[in-house]
Every structure is written in structure tokens, then in C-alpha cells.
Amino acid sequence: MLLSRIYVLTDGTALSESQCTGLLDVLNLECPVEVKELTTPVSSVLVRWLPSWCQVTLGSYGVARLGDKESMKELASAKGATLVLASGYNTLTTAIELKKALGDKAFTVVIGHPCSFDYSLFDMVILSGFEVLMHSVDPLPKNAFQTEGYVNRATYQQLLRAKLESAETLNDLRHPLLLLNLGGPTKWCPYDEKVLTEDLAKICQNALKSGVVEQVVVVFSDRASEKVQEFYAEQKWLDKWTGDFIYMLAWADLVAVSADSIPECSEVASVGKPLFTIAEESCRASHSSLFTLFEARGVSKPLTSEKLAKNSSGWKYKQLGGAVEAANEVADRLAKAKPNAARKWYRS
Question: What's the half-sphere exposure (Cβ side, CA atoms, 13 Å) at 20?
């Protein structure tokens, strides 16, 4: 039985969409694939970063739409197997309903901890080493798979694609280039916004004056407040990038990310770029544990003028990506679940 479609379930957050697109890209499926985002309106970011080999049909389908008997019968009677990729707590109920309706014709993969849901409800659950530690998952359930880092879209292929596509626009950037990704305080990472404005501006200006970096570019996440954005709108010593973060990441020599922005931190760690963290000392619980792990693995350093000057040429560390190892494991488990299909679904 050949795989004929994929359903992508995300909760609309940057992390959820990055995880699904990253896994899809590395899976590199050979057959035509229909990709539908089932829980939220289709995101332009998700559409933009779907692999080019997908023959894509996109739509918005909520849990109620999938839950109706006629639509479930239609799915169950369709030819071929269905791969369901789910990321985000709000997507799990839909994934379970799809599995119930399609039975052995569906293979459900959840990226991230399933929270209150039992692991046995899914065919495979992908957990990062950090999530295993944070949720004390011991022993690891048989249908769970542990990756070293987070699964996300920041793979070698995506970074190369981003650099090639933006070469005409960004080829005149000056190096060393420091990329800032700024968000805002959260309950898990509360801090004074002065850290992102006056304090950070002083560090960057000193770095420019001393020649530690030649250019500073800022990207704002959805959490960045108007106050922070207005502050940097008045600064003439840096440039603003309003495009996708991954384009600028492809060109950056050094990256500094506010500690609330876990998706961007994980993307930097996945490609091995030097990562400076801003306001990490304010983080609580799981966020704090993540940065402790990052520092222990040589991924990140707290941003200070001294550390920036001392490490202006960057540093090397083992990348903490999870997309490649997760995709290989998905392929192996699919082959075992559907022995006649095996790896002929995949390009060599």
C-alpha cells in the first residue's frame, strides 16, 4: 500500500509549523502529497517553506469538519495510506480522531510531548532530549523516539535554499554580521524590556565602534512590543529585516536571541550558528533548564559586551538538530507498519 497523502496539523505557532515543515523536508517523499493544515487558517510561513517536491493542496479544516461521519467515511475509503503529522497540544484530539477513523491506513506522528494524552493513542511520538528531561520520561515508551535537539525547519537544505533565494537581495551585507531576534517578556521568561532596548543597544553600539562586528540586523518576533519596535525604528546604527528569520539566519555570523524565543533559539542550535542569549537569567522552570543544557553543550553564551568581543569569530559545537534523525526513524517505522511499502516511498 503506497502513501497517498499527508495531513499536517499545527496549532498555528512558529514552533509547531517549523517542526512539521522541517520533518517534511527531510522525509523527501517521492509520491504526490496533499498537505492540509487542519486546525488553523493556513499560514503563509507554512506555505512558503513546504518542500518544493510536494504537490500541495491546502485548506482550513477544523476538528468539527473532520469529525463528521461522512467526511470520515470519505477518508477511510480513499486509496492509499495517510501520514498524519501533528505538532501542538490543540492538534492531538484531531490526530486521535483520524487514527480511529482510518485505522491501519493511518500512521500518526506527534512531534513533542503529548501532555495528558496516552502515548498508545499514536503510532509514534518524537521527543527532544530536553523534553525527555523536562517531563521525566523514563523509561521511554516503545512508540516514542528521542532526538538530540528539537525537530524544526532549520536544516542544511533549508538554509542553503534560503541563501540561494536571497542572494540578490542580501549579498551586500557586511561581515561579521550580528543578527538580533527580539521578542518580549512571557510568564516563563519575565524581564524588563529595558534589557532589549537601552542595555542591548549599548552592547551593539560598542561592538560596532570597536570593529567586533560590521553590521547589526534586527528581526522582531510576534511578541515584540510596540515600545521595543519604536525604539529601534529611531536607531540609525542598525538595519531592520521584515522578512522570514531563516533568510537572515542563513547569512548571519553571530546570532543573539531574546530568551523567550525558543523556536528561533532551537533553529540556531540546529544549524550550528554561534548563539548569544538575551535575558536568559530571568527565565523560569523549563526555559531555564533549556538554556542550562545549551550552555553545557557549548551552544549558547549569555550576551555581554565582553563575551561578544571575546567570541567575535564564533565557536564550533555539535549541532542540536533533530529533523534528520527523526525522519529516518519515521521511515523505518513506516516500513515496519506497512512492510510492502517500505523505503520505496523515499528517494535515495
Answer: 32
Rounded Cα distance between 124 and 111, Å, is 9
Angle, alpha carbons 40-41-46 (nearest 5°): 95
- Grouping H, G, I as helix, E, B as strand and the rest as coil, residue 55 is coil
Give the SS3 label for residue 320: coil
**What letter represents residue 299's amino acid?**
V
Residue 264 · residue 244 · CB < 8 Å:
no
Of 348 and 174, more confident: 174
* For residue 176, cis peptide bond before it (omega within 30 degrees of 0): yes
> What is the C-alpha to C-alpha distance for residues 169 and 116, in angstroms, rounded to an integer?
46
| Coil/strand/helix, residue 51 | coil
- Phi then psi for 234, rounded to 5 degrees? -90, -10
More confident: 271 or 48: 271
Angstrom distance (rounded) from CA 43 to CA 59: 10
Instruction: Determine the distance from the C-alpha atom of residue 44 to the mean position of all C-alpha atoms in its chain, rounded to a whole number.
Output: 15
260, pLDDT greater than 70? yes
- pLDDT reported for residue 212: 97
What is the reported pLDDT for 91? Answer: 83
